[in-house]
Automatic annotation (TrEMBL):
It comes from the Bacteria. The chain crosses the membrane at residues 32-48, 60-79, 91-115, 127-146, 158-176, 183-203, 223-240, 252-270, 298-316, 336-359, 395-414. This is Uncharacterized protein. Keywords: Membrane, Transmembrane, Transmembrane helix.
Amino acid sequence: MNNRQLLYALLVAGMSLGTAWAIRGQFGHEQGAAWAGGIDGLSIVLIAKRKDWYAKAFQLALASAAGWGVGGIISYGKVVGFARGLEFGNVYYGFLMLGIIGGLFGLIGGGLFGLTLASSREKPVRWSQLITEMTAGAILFYYLLIEQLGWLMTPPRSEAWAACLGMAVALFWYMIRHKQHSAIRLSIFAGLGGGFGFAFGNFLQVMGNVSGIHFNFWNVMEYSIGFFGGVGMAYGTFTSEWETTDAQASRSGLLAPIVILTLIIPFIVWDQSFKTERLVETIRSFDPLADAAGITTYIQWIALLLVLSFAAYGVFKYYIRSNAPLSELRYEGIQLFFFLNLGLYTIYSILITCAFMSLYRIEQYLYILNVAILGFLVKKTQASFSDRGLNLSRWAINFAFIIAIFAILTAVAISTHGELNGANRRFE
């Protein structure tokens, strides 16, 4: 029974981040990843159904958003192309590097989420110290690996992966020093899930392109990193021990996370994505006779008003409405916020692709189906917790196993196609 509960919990968490990360493909960069990461953090809180976690649901969502979002600075378009070639070395390199990039997303996202879970009055996380150390790690690793050693992953694109690696190392050094073992476990599994999901997703994309089926297989790759990253993050959470903390939230600590999650992140997505030129080009691509300029104006205003309404509602319901110094957040309120957040992200995707005008982007309607399934599953799913501790030898075996799987995927991929469009070479 416990294993079945865990499998249902992993499925819901995987679908939550998978759907959000696939939607993130329309927006990209840090802000898109942050929106998706926040949704995943909320899904784990809902699945856990621990009342003491409700009190810091917004802080947990913000930590997950920050962690997954920072990985958005990494460029991986060229790396995806390495895995579309014909030479074993180049393709295998592509899969391995995608594993590292996806792993960095998960390591940082899972680590910050885990530390927020573990933080308590008796054992608080020193966030200012941690952020300073991670910033220093980013600078030092980038300078050493890129400027001094010249270890370029994706030339001539940005090599910001080195900065993220420095952040991850600093994050782990902090967790090790402060004996945050549960957060370490969570971070490791989120990294394993994200790394495997990214490489496996690109394999699915290659196979999909070879099949000749007309579908957005890039989106399949994005769903894969999100699904397996969400599964890894949830597994690390539900197989670790967490102390019981206060069941009430400080009202003063709610405002900043709510504003960032409902206004700042969505507004940046709106500002950076709903460009007039992009929307006009999209509309004219499937309907040259449409009033593209007029439709674009409507889309921009609707998207902006949705963000402002979401932010106003969030601040009113979860902050202003509670006049007491301490606020008791309930499951129903967090569930409502989760679906409003995911729903708005889904609407944004449909608006930016203009899928409400044409069926040319069929995957957009699969997002709606995913949200509907989550609406059915979330309330019925409750995770079972266990404490499986740290097992470095088993993790090393798992890591070696994943690397071996990448070699198998490479062999299969290069045997099924000729040179694909978008193929890149790292080594001559």
